[in-house]
Specification:
single chain, about 140 residues, mainly beta, Metal Binding Protein, Guanine Nucleotide Exchange Factor, Chain A, about 5% helix, globular, binds zinc ion
């Protein structure tokens, strides 16, 4: 089980199932919203629950996408895409240690900032990775 929350404790959550590898998103919207590159792990919605959501607020980005944050301390925590019905994306910096998480990939490198370099050995994609078709 993973636990986590915002800086001030007005949002606390539990994850009772597996997490995906951490993906860094370099798109301009993530960089503006987080102050730098976004980082996300995805969890099954059925495995996620709030323990405290007093501070929870949503920035509505589009008809299907919203970003969750704490209205009391400003921590950025969630990326919720209603078109991805199975998964909710969480910011790994919100997890309590030890997280057990591992880095996996960079996405949207085609719109990365001009003030840093990406020089690690993780998977790299200019936009979203093309989803592999399921094996028969
Ligand atoms: Zn907070
Ligand atoms: Zn992004």
């Amino acid at each position: 089980m993973h636990t986590g929350g915002c800086c001030c404790g007005a949002i606390r959550f539990e994850v009772l199932g597996p997490t995906t590898g951490v993906t860094y998103c370099h798109c301009s919207k993530c960089r503006r919203w987080h102050g730098h590159v976004g980082a996300y792990t995805a969890v099954d919605r059925r495995d996620f629950r709030f323990v405290q959501e007093r501070g929870l607020a949503w920035y509505v980005v589009s008809a299907t996408v919203r970003r969750g944050f704490c209205r009391e301390c400003g921590s950025t925590l969630f990326f919720d895409d209603a078109e991805d019905l199975a998964k909710l994306a969480l910011c790994p910096g919100a997890f309590d240690a030890p997280t057990g998480l591992k880095e996996k990939a960079h996405i949207f490198l085609g719109s990365q900032g001009d003030y840093y370099a990406v020089q690690d050995a993780l998977l790299k994609f200019d936009a979203l990775p093309v989803r592999a078709s399921p094996k028969p």
